[in-house]
Design a protein that fits this description.
Blueprint: E1 21-24, E2 31-34, E3 40-43, E4 46-53, E5 57-62, E6 65-70, E7 72-74, E8 77-79, E9 82-84, E10 87-89, E11 100-104, H1 109-118
Antiparallel strand pairs: 1-2, 3-4, 4-5, 5-6, 6-11, 7-10, 8-9
Length: 119
Amino acid sequence: MSARKEGGPPQAAAPTETKPSTITTPRDCGSQALEPLPAEVRKHRRTMLQVWRDEYTAIYEYLGGYEVIVIIKAPAEQKFGEDYPARELYPGDEDWGTLAITRPETDSLEYLKKRARDL
């Protein structure tokens, strides 16, 4: 979201380049290189851009607000006859309120980072 309304939250720096990280997954799968979350996510007819992340949380911006999420770590697995690599996942709708929250565009990036740490 490149254009900003006057008085809106400060524009965040572009996210740092994300490469597969080696993280122990929560399912005791050992240390695996994880395919990172994409910098752009399309969900519920919205396109969201990652504006900040750390090892465990990320903040995505869309027109009108932000989504603050806990990054889910998934091991390599076979599901529905398909092979999936070890990867980071965006929380599902059922995770809202516990692993993810929606915030208005008026929130500052510093406030959003604090909320991310509280998830």
